[in-house]
Amino acid sequence: MHLLNNPRRSHRKSRYGCALCKRRHVKCDEKRPSCTPCLVRGQDCTYLMITQRKATSDAPSRDRLGLPSPCPRARTDLVLHEMQLFHHALMVTAPSIANDDLDLRFWQMDIPRIAITHAFVMDSLLAVAALHLAYIHPEQQTHWASVSLTYQIAATTGLREDLAAGLNDGLEAKFAGSALVLVLTTAYPAVCSNTVIGQERAEKQGYTLDTVQSIRSALEGCAIMATHIHQDQDHSSFGYWLHRGLSTPETVHQKSELQARLHHLRNEIERSEIEASSRDECQRVCDINLSILDLWPAHQFTIVWPLWVSKAFLALCRKGDWVAYILLLFYGLTLHLDSHKWYISGAGKQLILNILSRMGDKGDIPLEWAETICWVRQVVDV
Q1: Which terminus of the chain has a smaller tally of CB atoms within 10 A, N or C?
Q2: Gap between the Cα atoms of 378 and 382, Å rounded
Q3: 160-179 confidence digits (pLDDT tens)
Q4: Distance from C-alpha of 150 to C-alpha of 153, rounded to nearest angstrom
Q5: Contact, 123 vs 151, CB < 8 A?
């Protein structure tokens, strides 16, 4: 029988239910990332207990949890759980993201300092830490992915509310939150493309064209915050980070061949008879790809690509323009150069697979692109 049709009966009070169930005075089964009532109704499920982080009369006592109470201020399991994630974020995740000492200072010192006083930044930081744990502990991926998603929902809700209040103050917190959401948006499809959340398999497609557009939106937010901070950099504690890699012989060779093929493609586009506006957009994207490769690996701007390309180019991709598809494949290869980074791991290959699926069967591929596509497949081994 459907749970909504069951007769009312006594039950323990749901002290940690989601916001919607509390508002509707409905018993919440507290499942993560979405409780059953919200799942049935197809509604977004958000748990406020994460963002509040305050001791309340509803907080579980150590007696009810079966734990000893050595002092009145004994920590709850929730606080210990978040301390574990916070420690992991500082000591393990931050070094895994940083490319140099300045990066480490930003991720290990500045971000946590801001997180202590801004709940949505803390939620974002804990979400990233949980997602990193999902990556390094595949046997617990389902659990940590679910934890990450719960914090991510709270973080994006909090960030959205903070942004709605305007840009007059709290720019550093807004930028920190936006930067962490960008990491989550990039990493989640790559880390959890086929993980199991709750009792359902999240059959995601991994890093796809949709992911590129989501990352573009996240980057736009970061860019707005960075611009405002740059204008007032004398009062910013991490302006240093806004103004300022690892490579192997194999990736260096791939970079050189990719650059050569991009130069060739740009010349082919220039001589082509495609519509002038489409030609200009594709040539511009060629130049963006080449600029990123020129700076790689000393400066890894690969993740910023979705912001630099225009919406008109993304529209060409949506329409199935072959030149745009080829440029997306080349961007996938550029991502693939940084596949040693956990938050990008697999993203390039997933994007390439998504674009190849959009291209259709081999018989549908124009002859002039057959060799290029074959080379792309060889590089990523698909």
Answers
A1: N
A2: 7
A3: 888 888 877 788 899 899 88
A4: 5
A5: yes
Closest CA to 334 of 371, 295, 364: 295
- Per-residue pLDDT, averaged over 42-66, amounts to 49
The residue with tokens 């497949």 is: 377
* Contact in structure between 190 and 345 (CB atoms under 8 Å): yes
For residue 147, give every residue at least 6 positions away whose Cβ sits within 8 Å of its Cβ, in sequence order, or none: 32, 85, 130
In sequence order, what are the residues at sequence separation of 6 or more whose Cβ sits closer than 8 angstroms to the Cβ of residue 103? 97, 241
Q: Which residue has the higher pLDDT, 45 or 75?
A: 45
Numbers of helices and strands, H then E, in the chain: 19, 2
Give the C-alpha separation, 186 to 344, whole Å: 7
- CA 333 to the chain's CA centroid: 19
Distance of CA 276 to the CA centre of its chain: 35
How far is 258 from 53, CA to CA, in rounded Å? Answer: 49
How far the first Cα of the chain sits from its last, in Å, is: 47
Cα distance between residue 266 and residue 287, in whole Å: 8
Length of the chain: 382
Q: What are residue 61's phi and psi, to 5 degrees?
A: -75, 160
